[in-house]
Specification:
Layout lengths: L1 H16 L1 H30 L3 E7 L4 H12 L3 E6 L5 H9 L5 E5 L3 H19 L17 E5 L5 H32 L5 H8 L21 H15 L2 H14 L1 H6 L5 H30 L14 H25 L3 H19 L10 H6 L4 H13 L5 H28 L4
């Protein structure tokens, strides 16, 4: 026990001298969590709270186009700016290229006329179906080009589709209003009152959305719940920069050979490194979680809600940390130079994070990658954390993810032992 304690003290002293490694293990993950969570939270608010600036050029003089603009404004998604109908596409697109606007909407000159003609045709069909004599159906008019949307290419596809959905809803609303007015007038021979029109169209229906969680809670996950666990795992595995490089330095300096001449066993040194860096990973997790709980609210980010099962959180963090340390030691044993350990270690972590679901959600991956991600230890770490943070599960609920992670850790430990034997270091 004394030998193990002395070795741990030695490893802590070596670690304290590695200021760059400490900055990589603690400073970089904290900065990464703050930046990524802020960006993703702002992306969510872009759709939910922040109004998107939109330039509207209305070339139509009818009242239906004015109603359409009002309907767009009532979506509460857009900050409208109206420009003269004389402005051409080039003037509008030039302004967009200068980054003044993300979106521009051009309403065609025949917008009201075509909407009205369509309403007459649909009303005639409806009256005929009711067995009543309606007006002539009129010619079928195409609705293509009634509204043209210009958008900045920087807008993500998901955001653009949400915007299109909101605009399409506003367009359908004005078209339905016009059909309703025509139908009411054809049957009653008097215009539809505004009050009745609002009652018929505004049914105040809502969709109640409930997250499916194991603890039956009604809490909705936020950007912090998604990002903090993911980038905590990323931070843990980045100990490969310090630990992998440390092992390579010991190999090159002859420390392994000197250990053979001492009345001790290299496994004590290996156990010391694992315990020391396991403590580092636990401190990383504690620091990042603490920032999520106490610092995020003070800088305008949603707070991190810790799981109810704190024992499960500690258990999962220990297993994730042990796997990260095992991976780093394995890289250090097989790398021939410190540059190899740092380069391959860093790149491989990024790749494992990408296929493991940290950068792109697993449900959005193609089938080929869904198979590959099962071999990434970061995937099982993320699933275990999400089981606690997002699903509200307990330790028994995440064992299905911890067991594969434990198996991968044992495999890395075995591979490390094989590498040490092959290189005759033990």
């Amino acid at each position: 026990m004394f030998k193990l304690w002395a070795t741990i003290v030695k490893d802590i002293r070596v670690l304290k001298r590695d200021r760059v490694g400490l900055a990589m293990m603690f400073g970089m993950p904290v900065l990464l969590v703050l930046i990524v969570t802020s960006i993703q939270n702002n992306t969510f608010q872009l759709i939910n709270k922040t109004k998107i600036p939109i330039l509207i050029c209305n070339r139509d003089t009818g009242k239906i186009s004015a109603e359409f603009i009002q309907a767009v404004d009532k979506t509460d998604m857009f900050k409208l700016e109206l420009v003269s109908k004389d402005q051409g596409e080039k003037q509008i697109t030039d302004r967009m290229r200068n980054k003044d606007m993300l979106l521009s909407l051009i309403i065609a000159a025949d917008f009201s006329a075509k909407i009205d003609t369509n309403a007459v045709r649909v009303t005639g069909k409806a009256l005929t179906a009711f067995g009543l004599e309606g007006d002539t159906l009129g010619p079928k008019t195409g609705n293509e080009g009634l509204v043209t949307l210009y958008y900045q290419p920087i807008l993500q596809e998901s955001i653009r589709q949400t915007i299109q959905g909101a605009l399409y809803g506003a367009l359908q609303l004005v078209a339905s209003k016009q059909v309703l007015r025509k139908l009411y007038f054809s049957i009653n021979e008097k215009p539809l009152s505004t009050k009745l029109e609002n009652e018929l169209l505004d049914n105040n229906m809502t969709i109640k959305d409930i997250p499916v969680s194991l603890d039956k809670s009604m809490k909705r996950p936020n950007a912090s719940q998604h990002n903090v666990p993911a980038w905590t795992i990323f931070a843990m595995f980045f100990v490969v920069i310090s630990l992998g490089g440390s092992i390579v330095r010991e190999k090159l300096s002859g420390s392994f050979i000197r250990l053979k001449t001492l009345p001790t066993n290299y496994f004590i040194s290996l156990l010391s490194k694992q315990l020391t860096y396991l403590l580092v990973t636990m401190l990383q997790a504690a620091l990042i979680f603490a920032i999520g709980v106490w610092v995020f609210p003070s800088i305008g980010l949603p707070p991190l809600n810790l799981p109810a099962d704190m024992l499960g959180l500690v258990f999962v963090t220990l297993i994730c940390g042990w796997c990260a340390v095992s991976y780093a030691i394995c890289i250090g044993v097989f790398a021939r130079t410190q540059e190899q350990a740092n380069g391959f270690g860093a790149v491989s972590i990024v790749i494992l994070a990408a296929i493991g679901g940290l950068m792109v959600p697993s449900f959005a991956m193609p089938d080929t990658f869904r198979t590959a991600m099962k071999f990434s230890p970061l995937h099982w770490c993320l699933e275990a954390y999400y089981g606690l943070f997002l699903d509200g599960g307990k330790m028994k609920d995440v064992l299905v993810n911890v067991i594969p992670l434990f198996a991968i850790t044992l495999f890395l430990q075995g591979l490390t032992f094989l590498g040490l034997k092959t290189k005759k270091l033990i």
